[in-house]
Structure formats: structure tokens, C-alpha cells
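Subject: sequence -> C-alpha cells, single chain

Hey, anyone have a minute? Need the predicted structure for the following. Not urgent.
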Amino acid sequence: MTGRGLRERGLRAPAWLEELVRTTPPPVPWRDVVRFAVAVPAPLAVAVLIEGGVEPGPALGAGVFATTGALAASLAPQSGPLRDRLRRTAAATGFGGLGLVVGQFATGGGWMPVVLIAVLSALAALISAVNAALSLGALQLLIYTALASGLATPLSAVEEVAFFVAGAAWATLLTLIQARTEAMDPDRTAVATVFTRIGELLTAVGAAQAEDARRSLTTALNEAYDRVIRSRSLSAGRTRELSELAGVLNAAAPLVEGAVAAARSGAPADPQDVAAVHALAAAVSGARELTEERPPPLEDGRPVPRAVRHGIRLVWNVVGDPEERAGAAALGPEPEDWRIRLRELADRTLASPESRAFAVRLTLCMTVAEIARQYLPIERPYWVLLTVAIVLKPDFGSVFTRAVQRGAGTLLGVLLGSALLAVLPRDAWVLVALAGTAALLPWARNANFGLFSVFQTPVIILLLDLALPPGPGLVAARLTDTLIGCGIVLVFGYLLWPQTWRAPLDEALRAATLALDAFVEAAFTGSPADRRRARRRTYRALTELQTQLQRRLAEPPPISTRAAAWWPVIVQLERTADAVTEAVIATRGGDAAPDLAQVTVLRRAIRRLEADVRAPSGPDDAEIHADGVLAPVAREVDAARRLVREAAPGRRE
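Reply:
Had a minute. Here:
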């Protein structure tokens, strides 16, 4: 019975169960569909052409490994700048090739393969905590280690890796061609559209079109937030690009309010402001860079034009030099930069309790899967390892949801693959089926993990059916191995870890705000050593917060819904910590030290922020007033308070 039928009878299924079976059809990404349909089967088609048919041998083995590389490199790019797509592709290819080599040493029985898989799993879990590209690479490392541990081919390890890389290079070439022919990054375009609409609203002030322009601005702002948050939820880890875009949207709030106020007042906008807003739109989209000089403060007694100009100047700081803002975390001199980076890397990996716990879970599950591979009487035992790696996917995602969706999706995928194998002769028609199922992957990936598994499984089955001797038990063996892998993950990766059933994001948020309060105190009243310690505690707390966010975004509603509502707040807290760092650097450079009374007011506001996270209070539009180096910090705290008030209703849904 569907969720709708339950509701009609006055009943309601649990939210997580509705999410498991719910699939909102996403728009069809036609360019990606065409790219997958061409990139994935092409290497295999070349091998079949050279061999003169689908016949087992070196040529077919080369085609299978090249097609596998093409599949990995086709799946790697996601929405974002071309450099990020290429970075993800390079990580998937490099770690995948490494897995093919390491997997040669994980064959056979005994304790050596068990130890190797355990060490590799721990490293993969820690690597995945660094960023999204390395998280994807860590997954490919485990996947291709599992494949190489049990897939016997007539090729040497060097030949397997060479053809794998060649297939990945072919798929990367098609990605580059697509990037040259399609519109720019859709996330960045959506954010740039917000500033275009602001410019249109300022132009329409006093005209009949002002109300329509205001509605268009509201729509663009909502779509930009939805787009960036969705991309973040689909990302396999923290991404600097998306955090910067979220920071731009957060910084745009005063400008949006000023533009709306200008439209209501009916006073014509300053042409310089209109031009500046369009310049911001062009800079965000990447069409051209901003000039070094932002518009000067407006010496005008009217509050609305001053608010618009003030909002433009705030956004100009963020858009004009995001690299400087993102890199403002260094409190020490330049020679210590590499040490600071190493400490931050350690904070994300070994020093993070969340990362360590996940490493233990992944290592335990992969070790149990390796032992099962050696001792259970199953036909294709390496598939158990493969299933555990994919389900437990090293990106701190939802274990429960992935296991259930992977099991159900693989069941349907195996049935689909078996139907194709039963209907199609072992000839070039397999290429047609491979192209068709591969073409559906980018669409299914945007829906949910289960639907993606439905179409990914036939692709892999078709490939392995060509690489291995045909046998009537292949489909049943694949299904059995998958269910064993899902069972291992549910028992050893979920049920034994009760803390994974909870969503401690609120606690992590409060801890981050308290650490930020201590950082502000140490920054302006403590010694240099106190500042360094407080800063490290703050950024460690923010790192833990990002890790909790990543896990919560992968869970079923209502957990993922609440997490999405908090993400802009998390980005704003990071921006606030950066602003405190910048203020410290400014005082070192000769700026006047802040008034301690203003520091007290600022700390009180941050503590109120922590209280609002714990128990949201009523609306509070009072702004924090601060001068000198504290002025930017006060603006960031004001933005954080506003975002907390906006996020509070979303987390109660």
C-alpha cells in the first residue's frame, strides 16, 4: 500500500519508510544521458569489433576493463565548476587504478588478505573525511580492490590498469566536450541570477513592473538556496565551491532587504548601485572579475539608499576575493602555513571522533566481508566485498537507508539484468542493452540510491557476464552475495552502533557556537597561545559540525529535512570564525584594538545564538553595533542570528 493509501485510511507510514519507497521523478539531464550512452559502451564496442564478435579473450578483457574505467569516469563528475569535475574524475581514476593493483594481493585465503582489507578500509574512511573528491576516490579504491580480488581475466595487472585508465581518459574527453557546449555551472548560475533580479528590481523602482520584479527576486532567491542545498546534499563530502556560494547568498540578505525597501519606497535607485549589482552578477557567474575598488559609502541621509549601498559593499567583500576570506584562517606567520594545514587535516581525520568511529565501522564491515568471502560457499564471493563498500560508502552517509535501498534496488536490478541475459543473444545486442541502462544512470542518480542501484546493477552484470565464463547461476549468485553484503552492513555497521540512530546535529551546533564564543574572548583578551588554542577548538568544532551535517543529509526525512534547514547557519558560523580571525590579523597590522565593552556585547549575542539553537525564541531584529575591527564580526553574527531564526521552524517539521 502506498503512503497516499495509508493517509486516506487515516494511517501514516513512518517518515523514513516513506522516503525509502518515494521517488520524485527528477528532470532528465539529457546531455548527461547522451554522454553516458556513448562513453560507457564505446570501449567495449571497439573490443567486439576487433575480436569480430563477443568472444572471450584478451581483446574482450581489455574492452571490459576500459568500459569499467569509462563508467567510473562518467559517474565521477557532478554539478559544479569544470575544475571540480576534473578533480573528482582524477580521484576516481587514480584510486580506482590503485585498487586494481592492490586487489591482486587480496586474493586467496589466509590472514594476509584480511589484514590488507582492514588497513585499506581504515585508510579509505580517513581519506574520505578530507573532501568530496577524495571521498569518491576512497570509494573507488575499495570497489576496484574488491573486483581485482576475485575477477580472473587473461590480462596482467599492468594491462588491466592501462585499459582502465584509457577508458577513463575517453570518458573524460567526452566530459570536456560537454563542458564546452553546455551552460556554465548551474549552481553558480542560480546564485548569479539572484543579483540579476536585484538589479532588475532596482531598475523597476517606481514603475508598474516593480511588484513583478520583487516576486521574481523572491523566486530566484528560493531557487538558488534550493539548488545549492540540493547539490550539497548530493555531494559526497565538504566542497569549498558550494560553501562559498552559500556564503554569497547569506551575505546577500541585507542587499535583498535594501532592494525590497527601495521598491516599496518608490525612490529611484542610484545608477551606480544598479551597475554594481549587475557587476556582482557577472562576477558570481564567472563572466568577469570585480574591480578592486568597491563602491564608496553613500553619504546620504536617506536610510533606504544607504541600506542598498551598504548591502552592495558587504557582498562585494565576499564576491571580490573569496580566496582571501577562505584563507584567512592562518593566525601565524606564513612559514607556519604548512603546519596549520597539517593540523587542520589531522583535525578532520585522526583527531575527529566521528572520523575515527566511522573508520572502525567500515573496517569491521569490510573485514567481516573478507572473512565471508573466504569461508562462505558462494560462487562470486568478491561481490560481498563490493556490496559492503558501496552500501557503507565512505562519505559518512546513511548506513540504514543505503543498505535497504541497495538491497531492494539490486534485487530489481538483478531481475532486470537476468531478463536481458535471457532475452538477448551473446552478441552485439549486449552493447545496445549496456548503452540503454548506462544512459539511465545520471537520471536515476538524481532520484535516490535505490533507483540508481536498479540500473547500475544490470550494467555491472552485463560487463561481468562478458568477462567471465557464462553460467546459469550467475544471477542467483549475484543476488545472494548482495543480500549477504547488505546484511553485514546492517548488523555490523548499523545495529551495533546505537549512536548512528540519533541525529546529534543540534548538539554539534551548540558546541560550535560555544567554541566560537571562547574564540572571541581569547582573540581580544587572551595571550597568543590562548588565541591559537581557541581557534583550533573552534575550527575542530566546525569540522565536527560539517561531518554531522554530511551524515544527516543522507538520512531519510525528517532528519535530512532538518539538516538542510541548518546548513546555511553552519556556513555562516564558519564565516563568523573567519571574520574573528581577520579582526585579529587587522589588530596585528596596526588597527586599533576593539573596545572590551563591545567584545562583551558581541559575546553576549553569540551566547544568545547558542540559546536560540537550543530553544528558539521570538523574533529579534535588534542589530549588534560595533566599530573598527569588530564591525565585520558583528555583521556576520547578525546574519547568523537571522539564519537561526529562519531555520528553527524547518527543524521542527
